[in-house]
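Q: Got a minute? One more chain.
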Amino acid sequence: MADSSTQVRPGGRSAKVRAAVHRAVAELLAEEEAETLTLPAVAARAGVHPTTLYRRWGSIAQLLTDVAGSRFTDDLVVPDSGSLAGDLRRWLADVATDVADPDTLALMRATIGSGPAGGCACVEDRHRQLAAIIQREQDRGGTAIDVENAADFLLGPLYYRAVFTPEPATADWARTLVTTYLATLSTP
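A: Always. Here it is, folded:
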C-alpha cells in the first residue's frame, strides 16, 4: 500500500471546481451585465453548491480577482527582437490585441469595477512582462528605464482607451504609443 503522504494528486477535485467556476464566470460575463453576476449564479452555472464559492472566495470581488489573476498570468510571451523598440512594439501590440477581445474586456471591466484588488489583478502580470523587457534592455547595455513610468506611459492610455472609451485600442495605435514614449526618452 502506498503512503498517502507521498501521493501527488494532479489537479483533483479542487482544480476541477476552480476551472468550472472560472469558465462559468467567463460565460456569464459574455451573456450578461457584470452587475448581475452573483456567487449563486456562478455556482449554478458551474454545477457546484454556492457554499463552495462562499467558502473559497467569499465574495464576487474576490472571485473576479482570482479569475483575472489566472487569465492575465503568463498569457503573453515577452518578445526578444534584439532591441527595446522592437520588444516594446510587439509586446504592446499583443496587449492591445488581447484587451480588444470582447470576453477579455468584459472580464476586465467587471474586475476593475469590483475594487482596487481587481484592477491590480488585470495589470500585475503586464508589469512583470514590462519589467522583463526593460531588464533585458539593461542587460544588453541599453537605456535604464523606470518600469512604473513606462507602465504609466504605455499601459495607462491603452487600458483607458480599452476600458473607458468606445475607441478601439488597436495594435497599430499601441505601436505609436511606443514610438512616442521612446522619443520622450531621447529628449532632454
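A: The mean pLDDT is 86.
Q: Perfect, thanks.
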